[in-house]
Specification:
Strand content: 5-15%
Number of helices: 33
Radius of gyration: 43 Å
Length: about 800
């Protein structure tokens, strides 16, 4: 038999009041009797060191009992010997028997996980701190056998945590600060007990501290009313909300919540907000004037017209493009003028002149005017040249995105199946080549008119005449007419997915409907339809009786759609590039290279077989592209922009043009350089050295077409700035051409001026189109009373803020 001595009696002795000690004597006597019995049993066998110690200790305990005065109310071995039984157990060197015990709340303390922990009686006053809602109240023996109050984190104990026990079993004898730190660090509580969002807790904690510091600082500073008003206006113009929403009662309540000092600043009427915006526009205009005046090179002005969605305003958008004094490329909105429905060249010229005057831009600061290919824009520049110093021909840039749109529109919609013979001719016989772009333009215009004003039957018939593209449009329109047809089509997709192989699409896709004659949406419609070809064929078979027979796609139609997609894919690629804003892909040097690449692509495809309708469509598209490609010869800036791209230089022309045209390009380059030397009055000295060798990398696609095929080193050992630039090593493919010129400008005092102007000029007027797209959220049917001055101020301020100029 093993006698177990537990600390429980020691606890009883510690906590026994003197008044009750006589009541405890019977229990002690029983304990002594049991101990004596154990002693006798131990004596009958072989004694171990532990049993001897137990016997000796029990004898000492009995002796203490006999020498104690039971009537003494001031002393007792129960209070003066607090650790006797614990010592007995330690001296016995007997193994401890583990037991599970429960706290007053029912929590089980498992000694295997919580060594040394014991339950504690409930607090008489209760736990008032919020931390006890997240933890367990228990005790733990320290090295001196003292029981200290501890807090155990319930979340960590019950969860699968990897941090040590000491991080979530914390002493609370004096303070709960460590407990709060634990809950804040590991469980996203703030110090007041509120639960934070786990995903943003750390950031919110830092933000809260910063906000608290700023709040304290604000209490000790004078409130900046002008700054608050400027920030308020910035929020209104950037968010695109209406002026009435910006002065709503709900917004006022939000802004004034625990912030009474702004109550008198919030405008009470939408007219006040409008007046603030107009005043902010007039004030900040000076900053834009100074930024344009300090540009590193000449600027480019792009403009375009737009009929507002409210059917009231007819606006002319004006954007300036330039390299700022911080060497950042800026695309800044200058104006949105109301043309009052007049699109004549004279009216456009008047508005452009007023904008230049408002921003103090002289003719000598302007490199180019960029616009689409409408003839009224040509007329506007001719009239403007009478009032501003500019050459209406060499200063005229044509939007590359608009050119590619015209080409693809001609391919897709320029030929009707009942007029194929008029659209065809033999490319191989030069004397038969004629420009029938006028007839294709007439066909497209008539098609647009039917789509805008024709009946449903007329529109159906008009699309039917456009070949497989028109049939596909009618089929997609039929499917998307109601939800039941969409459900049937999705069921056909499910059949294809179940029966298809691993290469087929594995999810339900929606069909894309082309928007009128927007060619890019038509390309996307074809691309999606080819992905869903099997499902569309199953749908046709299922609904054959409900679909017009002339709208059913057969095998030949699908084959032509495949060819059409392959034909349009490169055009879609380069059109997306030239319409990018603020990047090298959207710069002027990509206009000529993109057109050359697409001409090569169309001519290569012309040598391959195709249906009569496909070849006719290809012919009219080729004619349209060739027309505008030849127009670029009128402006030497297209050639100079390609040359000033350090990735291309003069070697691009040698790789892609015939020798006669290469000589033409080199002559243009020499003339432009000589004119620049005279303009900037710089006599660049000749230098004698050997230009470094260039590196060569093989690329693919459009980049491979424009990459120099070989490096031809100049044999001239004495060369000026122009010759030096021709012999440079190829920069890394990833380096932006404009960045290269910024880092090497000290070596090219003449060419840098041309580079900063030409490489900052856009290839398209996409910035104007984006302006109208954003303005459409403000000037629309829901805000029919928005007037031109306010619409202009809102869009200008939004642009100036986004460009970081104010």
């Amino acid at each position: 038999m093993v006698f177990l001595v537990t600390p429980s009696l020691t606890l009883i002795k510690r906590k026994a009041p003197s008044a009750n000690r006589n009541a405890l004597w019977p229990h002690i006597r029983d304990f002594e009797t049991s101990a004596t019995r154990v002693k006798c049993q131990l004596a009958s066998g072989t004694r171990s060191r532990g049993s001897q110690l137990v016997s000796m200790s029990l004898s000492q305990l009995t002796a203490k009992r006999r020498h104690m005065d039971p009537e003494d109310s001031t002393s007792s071995f129960l209070t003066t010997e607090p650790d006797d039984l614990t010592e007995l157990h330690q001296l016995s060197r007997l193994a401890t028997e583990h037991h599970s015990r429960r706290t007053d709340t029912g929590f089980v303390i498992r000694a295997s996980r919580l060594p040394g922990c014991v339950p504690l009686p409930a607090s008489k006053t209760g736990h008032r701190s919020w931390v006890w809602d997240q933890g367990i109240y228990l005790g733990q023996l320290n090295d001196h056998n003292e029981v200290l109050k501890h807090w155990l984190c319930k979340t960590c104990y019950e969860g699968d945590v990897r941090h040590p026990l000491s991080t979530y079993l914390l002493c609370t004898e004096k303070t709960t600060t460590k407990v709060i730190d634990h809950l804040e660090e590991f469980h996203q509580f703030d110090r007041l007990g509120s639960k934070l969002l786990p995903a943003v807790s750390k950031k919110r904690k830092q933000a809260s501290l910063e906000a608290w510091g700023l709040q304290q600082q604000a209490h000790h500073t004078v409130f900046d009313e002008e700054g608050w008003r400027s920030t308020y206006c910035r929020w209104v113009v950037s968010s695109g909300i209406s002026l009435r929403q910006a002065t709503s009662d709900e917004l006022k309540a939000l802004l004034c919540f625990q912030n009474p000092r702004v109550k008198g600043l919030i405008p009470q009427s939408h007219t006040t907000t409008g007046a603030w915006i107009m005043n902010e526009y007039a004030t900040q205009q000076r900053s834009i004037i100074e930024s344009i005046a300090s540009a590193k090179g000449k600027v480019t002005i792009s403009f375009d017209g737009w009929k507002a969605n409210n059917d009231v305003l007819d606006l002319l958008g004006v954007v300036v493009h330039y390299l700022g004094d911080d060497y950042k490329l800026h695309n800044v909105v200058l104006a949105m003028r109301d043309t009052l429905g007049s699109h004549t060249g004279a009216n456009i010229a008047d508005h452009l002149f007023d904008v230049l005057k408002d921003y103090q831009i002289s003719g000598s600061q302007i490199a180019f005017f960029a616009a689409d290919n409408a003839t009224n824009n040509d007329k506007a520049l001719q009239l403007l040249s009478e009032r501003v110093t500019l050459d209406p021909v060499t200063s005229r840039l044509r939007c590359a995105g608009h050119i590619f749109n015209l080409v693809c529109t001609a391919i897709l919609f320029g030929v009707d199946e009942d007029a194929l013979e008029d659209a065809q001719y033999d490319f191989s016989r030069q004397h038969q080549q004629r420009d029938n772009s006028t007839s294709s333009t007439h066909t497209i215009t008539s098609f647009e008119t039917i789509l805008a004003h024709g009946s449903e039957e007329q529109q159906h018939r008009a699309w039917q005449l456009k070949g497989p593209v028109g049939k596909l449009h009618n089929l997609v329109t039929h499917i998307k007419a109601n939800n039941s047809r969409i459900a049937v089509f999705e069921s056909k997709q499910t059949e294809v997915i179940v029966e298809g192989d691993e290469t087929s699409h594995q999810k339900i896709l929606r069909l894309v409907t082309n928007g009128g004659i927007r060619w890019n949406s038509t390309y996307l419609m074809i691309d999606r339809a080819l992905h869903l070809r099997d499902a569309l064929m199953l749908y046709q078979s299922h609904e054959e009786g409900n679909i017009h027979q002339d709208s059913l796609l057969d095998r030949d139609d699908w084959e032509e759609l495949v060819h059409l997609k392959d034909l349009l894919a490169p055009i879609y690629e380069v059109s997306m590039q030239v319409q990018s804003i603020g990047t090298a892909a959207g710069a002027l040097h990509n206009t000529l290279t993109s057109m050359d690449y697409l001409l090569h692509h169309l001519e290569t495809r012309r040598s391959q077989p195709g249906s009569k309708h496909f070849m006719a469509s290809l012919n009219v598209g080729w004619l349209k592209l060739r027309k505008y490609y030849q127009i670029t010869d009128l402006n030497p800036s297209y050639i100079m922009a390609v040359f000033l791209n350090p990735h291309y230089r003069h070697l691009w022309f040698e790789d892609h043009w015939e020798p006669a045209f290469v000589n033409f390009a080199l002559t243009i380059i020499d003339q432009q350089y000589a004119a620049a030397k005279r303009l900037y009055n710089i006599d660049a000295p000749e230098r004698s050295s050997t230009p470094p060798q260039a590196r060569h990398k093989e690329l693919s696609g459009f980049a491979a077409y424009n990459k120099k095929r070989s490096y031809r080193q100049s044999t001239n050992t004495t060369y000026d700035e122009l010759t030096k630039y021709k012999g440079i090593a190829d920069p890394p493919d990833s380096q932006d051409p404009l960045d290269w010129w910024i880092s090497h400008q000290e070596h090219y005092p003449v060419l840098k001026h041309l580079a900063f102007a030409l490489l900052a000029a856009p290839a398209s007027t996409a910035a104007d189109e984006r302006l109208f797209s954003i303005a459409g959220n403000v000037v629309n049917q829901e805000r029919p009373h928005t007037q031109q001055p306010l619409a202009q101020a809102v869009q200008c301020l939004r642009s100036w803020h986004s460009e970081g100029l104010i």
